[in-house]
């Protein structure tokens, strides 16, 4: 929305920080606030203004206190100690909730939970405060975020792997170009494991008549499409269909090699060294706990 963009730029040129701009832009200008179709049922001025700020000026808000802050768990321990310990923080949280000041209660509770993640009383209090913010939120996204945080505090992190649409995933994987496979492989690479294990591999898709030259150096994986290394450690030859089956977990590399679907020339150990350096990501992860 132009008004959101322009108003944000106006305020940042006055020296306002992202959170100050978000507070100053609680309502739409003019009569728009009273139009039901312009209400923040999905988006919000608070999010939009901070996104606009980051687009033009980046993450740093100009205050050097925010330049290199402590990590949440470490900061939480200091805040809890400064506030007189966990029991006192809980007391102040409940006092803020009684007054309806749930935003402040959640800020205190966040420090307490990160300082003492196993403190059930703290987790329950924080969940109570987050639920109240969720119930009061007109914005569906914010409501879901608040309630998801409360659910994690009460029940831990769940597993949504059963929610994946297998058919849709299959169509997606078959539509992916091999270059995208290597892009994702580079993302999955664990740089600490890869350090000191430099290698060069040629990867050829015989049905596409397309080679890729992979280079692992200094813990970073790169590739050149349509090229080959003159002196590769190994050359892997396969079809795109085989890659799709591996992506769909219908095959693994050892089985595909054993059945002749993948041909490896040169030092075959290099391929498995590379595969052993790849991380597998979980579907769900913590958002309100360390």
List the helices and strands and how they pair.
Elements: H1 2-13, H2 18-24, H3 45-57, H4 72-82, H5 86-98, H6 102-115, H7 120-136, H8 140-155, H9 166-175, H10 178-188, H11 191-194, E1 199-205, E2 210-217, E3 220-225, E4 234-238, H12 240-247, H13 253-258, E5 263-266, H14 269-276
Parallel strand pairs: 1-4
Antiparallel strand pairs: 1-2, 2-3, 4-5
Helix pairs in contact: 1-3, 2-3, 4-6, 5-6, 5-7, 6-7, 7-8
Please characterize this protein's 3D structure.
This protein has helices spanning about 1-15, 20-25, 45-55, 70-80, 85-100, 100-115, 120-135, 140-155, 165-175, 180-190, 190-195, 240-245, 255-260, 270-275; strands at about 200-205, 210-215, 220-225, 235-240, 265. The chain is α+β, with helices and mostly antiparallel strands. Strands 3-2-1-4-5 form a five-stranded mixed β-sheet. A hairpin with a 4-residue loop joins β1 and β2.
Short note summarizing the structure:
With 290 residues, the chain is of the alpha+beta class.
Features:
290 residues, alpha+beta, Serine Threonine Protein Phosphatase 5, Tetratricopeptide repeat, Nonspecific Lipid-transfer Protein, Chain A, 3 domains, five-stranded mixed sheet
Order of helices and strands: HHHHHHHHHHHEEEEHHEH
Question: What can be said about the biggest beta sheet?
Answer: 5 strands, mixed
Head-to-tail CA distance between termini = 36 Å
Low-confidence stretches: 162-167
Architecture of the largest domain, according to CATH?
2-Layer Sandwich
| Order of strands across the main sheet | 3-2-1-4-5
Taking all residues together, what is the mean pLDDT?
92
The best one-word shape is elongated
Give the helix level as a range of percent.
40-55%
Number of extended strands? 5
Instruction: Determine Rg (CA atoms, Å).
Output: 26 Å
As for the CATH topology of the largest domain, it is Nonspecific Lipid-transfer Protein, Chain A
CATH class of the largest domain: Alpha Beta
The count of helical stretches stands at 14
Structural class: alpha+beta
Share of β-strand residues: 5-15%
Number of domains: 3
């Amino acid at each position: 929305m132009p008004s959101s963009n322009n108003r944000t730029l106006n305020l940042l040129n006055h020296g306002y920080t992202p959170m100050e701009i978000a507070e100053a832009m609680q309502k739409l200008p003019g009569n728009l606030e009273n139009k039901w179709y312009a209400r923040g049922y999905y988006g919000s001025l608070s999010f939009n203004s901070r996104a606009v700020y980051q687009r033009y000026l980046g993450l740093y808000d100009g205050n050097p206190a925010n330049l290199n802050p402590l990590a949440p768990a470490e900061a939480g321990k200091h805040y809890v100690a400064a506030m007189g310990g966990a029991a006192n923080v809980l007391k102040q949280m409940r006092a803020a909730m009684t007054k309806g000041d749930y935003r402040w209660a959640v800020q205190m509770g966040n420090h307490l939970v990160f300082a003492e993640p196993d403190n059930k009383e703290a987790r329950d209090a924080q969940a109570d405060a987050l639920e109240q913010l969720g119930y009061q939120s007109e914005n569906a996204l914010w409501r879901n975020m608040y309630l998801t945080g409360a659910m994690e505090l009460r029940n831990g992190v769940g597993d949504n792997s059963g929610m994946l649409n297998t058919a849709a995933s299959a169509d997606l994987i078959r539509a992916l170009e091999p270059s995208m496979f290597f892009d994702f492989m580079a993302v999955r690479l664990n740089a600490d494991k890869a350090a000191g294990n430099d290698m060069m591999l040629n990867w050829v898709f015989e049905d596409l008549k397309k080679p890729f030259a992979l280079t692992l150096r200094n813990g970073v994986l790169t590739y050149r499409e349509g090229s080959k290394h003159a002196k590769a450690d190994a050359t892997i030859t396969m079809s795109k269909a085989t890659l799709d089956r591996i992506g769909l977990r219908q095959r693994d590399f050892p089985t595909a090699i054993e059945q002749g679907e993948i041909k490896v020339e040169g030092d075959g150990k290099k391929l498995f060294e590379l595969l052993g350096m790849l991380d597998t990501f979980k579907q769900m992860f913590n958002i309100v706990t360390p």
